[in-house]
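Technical note accompanying the year-one report. For the benefit of new consortium partners, we illustrate the data format agreed upon in the data management plan: each record pairs a sequence with a structure-token string. No post-processing was applied to the example shown here.
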Amino acid sequence: MVRYTLPQSPEIILTVKGKDSAKAREEAMDRLMLLMDEGKLPTELAEGFGPKQFVEVIEDASVSDGEDAITEAVQILSNLASLKLKVMESREEALKIREAIDILFTDEPVTAEEIGRLKDGFKVLKNFAQANVRYREARGKAEEARAILDEALQSVESEKKAQKSAK
């Protein structure tokens, strides 16, 4: 999305899809003409006003970067929570299957039914192992995410303390 304004009326913001381009400026010009036709434009435009005279509105990157980091941190922590839940739900069954695998390495007789259950359990074991690996990898990223949130929340706590001491 790209946003444009008019030098004569900076309070008017026209948002169009895409990046800054001739096509986007033309679309903004069409929207501007609609505003003029509806009488919603508070200023008169000079004769010959064209799409090249729009001013692109660029947001303060530092604010959006901080917000993006917080949003990403929350997503990472949410993913960690989902992975932890998945690992916890399949852990007990996976460990039972892991114990049952040992029977393959003994000379004891095994029934076809036991082998069938083992084969069925391999999928559970595989899913648990993969989820556990993803969980351990996600924990590293989540540590950074937690630090980002702690920093953001610390600034809120500092403001609250300052307000309390001012009273």
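Partners are asked to follow this layout when depositing records. The chain has a mean pLDDT of 85.
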